[in-house]
Amino acid sequence: MRVAVGIDLGGTFIKGAIVDEQGHLLVKDEVATQSVRGSEWILQRIIQLTKDLIVKSGVDASFVTGLGIGIPGFIDSDLGVAIEVINIGWHDVAVVEPLQTALHMPVYMENDANLAALGESFAGAGRGFRSALCITLGTGVGGGIVIDGHVLQGASHMAGEIGHLVLDPQGAPCNCGHYGCLETVSSATGVVRLVHEGIARGEVTALEYQQFTAADVFAAANHGDELAQQVILVAAETLGRGLAMAANLLNPDVIVIGGGMARAGEILFAPVRKSFQSYALQRVSQAVRIVPALLGNDAGVVGAGKLALYS
Amino acid sequence: MRVAVGIDLGGTFIKGAIVDEQGHLLVKDEVATQSVRGSEWILQRIIQLTKDLIVKSGVDASFVTGLGIGIPGFIDSDLGVAIEVINIGWHDVAVVEPLQTALHMPVYMENDANLAALGESFAGAGRGFRSALCITLGTGVGGGIVIDGHVLQGASHMAGEIGHLVLDPQGAPCNCGHYGCLETVSSATGVVRLVHEGIARGEVTALEYQQFTAADVFAAANHGDELAQQVILVAAETLGRGLAMAANLLNPDVIVIGGGMARAGEILFAPVRKSFQSYALQRVSQAVRIVPALLGNDAGVVGAGKLALYS
EC top class, in one word (chains A, B) (predicted)? Predict the structure, then answer.
């Protein structure tokens, strides 16, 4: 038996797990990130979490082949350095070397969206498919591309940035500095923004008397709110077009959609699939399945474990 | 020394060459395809061309490791079958088995756009880069993606179809059945169409009194024709946006632009690069070079040879 440690570093929590060769989690745990304490303290937390997980799992340390860690920002995996991690205030922090020295095992680093994609591809909705495009609908739209079991990294670790396809150059401003990126429409943020725009235009909606989230918009749509239904249709159709573009380039076997919005089910997936078909080449469309993610918040640690097990 | 036979099957000519391990051509030749004579006759032509090339090259047959062949249509490389090749009227033609039987060497098949990309990546403008997106501007816009020396095939051999990114859903109809694909604007066909549209709107151009090609449009633009200049700017800006989308997904080290239009030089490349930068993520843009192809019409046979040498 071989296992690996999977770590998913987030702005709020550090998640960790012991992952086996089938992608199952033997144990998992999480601790608060407390980013204000700085990078050295956080690395110590990761080291302690790792040791605790190994002990809890009951697995002999000699079976632990390594540690994989997902970083929520820009990384240089050759140097083992986190270049810029805005959420936790990191800038040029060496990650791989201090963890390897303290833990005496090989350490592999990747960005968190790519590891979530790798996790879903390895042991989730993408299992058994040769190539997968995995996207996460959250505050933004993240993405990762997995081909033959490996993450496509690209020249500067930026591959998979489907959220920044400029679908409408006259569209809303995006955090990246451009306009009309996919994630300005088809993210949780985008859905909330579009409802606010509808309200400003004078459209009637049950949502106008409350603070609301994307989940509230989906709930309202399920209760027949027309503006909410319109907005979800726009978000879904836009997503379908973006996915069709990505699929015409990548011709993936499966597209896995995760994140909070993906839990909405067919109210989202049905129009996404319809829009996808009307923009993708027929041979591309026929070859692909569009499915919801299966691993939820565990995707990152599963992918981190997979990275360490099979690198 | 190892060499391979590279064959590029086209609608008009069958090109062939003996390719060495550096991607140099020892000899090359071409014969008319004469597609009306049917697939058996054409396969015999390829067999004879191969035998002649080996003799002409003076290389001992024992050094010939195999044959690669590019097919201008849809293929199934696992089965070794050309599924549909509209240009030469093929439908479900077995290619690999009859060639292997007649020539007693391994035969590898790929579509022609992918082999042109592989050729440029191996021994042309993409040489030395880990990942390349190679596009060809011709009647349409073809593309191929090469990562670590291998063509990205995709689930149904359709990867790299950048010409069918739907950039403007309200745009002109495309041969693929959709509207506003990149190739409706940024191909030779697209450039000619846009000039005709300008003429129909009553714009003045030196081109309106003649039959003209995309090459004529570039020549007119170089002589100060305003409509021709406008059209090339639109084609270049649209191409830049499509390439930026592809680059945000793939994060390639190099983008190689080939085909007749690419010979126009900076009148095309300068606005393509500018548009690319305004739509690509900064870290993607900083990591990539956009360069003209180097191998011209030889890219296909070089790629075919590379496929046979290193599969």
Answer: transferase
For chain A, percent of residues with pLDDT exceeding 90:
95
pLDDT tens readout for residues A58-89:
999 999 999 999 999 999 989 999 999 988 99
- Check B286 against A156: CB less than 8 A apart: yes
- pLDDT category, B208, cuts 50, 70, 90? confident
Q: Are A95 and A101 in contact (CB under 8 A)?
A: no
The maximal CA–CA distance of chain B, rounded, in angstroms, is 65
Q: Enter the ipTM.
A: 0.93
Homologous superfamily assigned to A128-294: ATPase, nucleotide binding domain (3.30.420.40)
Half-sphere exposure of A265 (CA within 13 A, CB side): 3
Buried b (16+ CB within 10 A) or exposed e, B37-53: eebeebbebbbebbeeb
The label of the residue with tokens 């090459």 reads: B215
Q: Provide, rounded to the nearest whole percent, the portion of chain B with pLDDT above 90.
A: 94
Count of Cβ atoms closer than 10 Å to residue B84 Cβ: 14
pLDDT tens per residue, range A151-191: 999 999 999 999 999 999 999 999 899 999 999 999 999 99
| Top-level class of domain B127-294 | alpha beta
Please say if the pLDDT value at position A131 is more than 90. Answer: yes
Pick the CATH number of B3-119+298-310 from 3.20.20.140, 3.40.190.10, 3.30.420.40, 3.40.50.150: 3.30.420.40
Listed in order, the ranges of chain B carrying CATH 3.30.420.40 are: 3-119+298-310, 127-294
Q: What is the mean pLDDT of residues B163-167?
A: 96
Closest to A166 (Cβ–Cβ): which among B159, B164, B245? B245
Which residues of B fall within a CB distance of 8 Å from A74?
A: 283
- Report the DSSP pairing between strands A289-292 and B254-258: unpaired
Chain A: give the shortest CA distance to residue B57, in Å: 38
> Nearest CB to A245: which of B74, B166, B177?
B166
Nearest CA in chain B to A144: B249
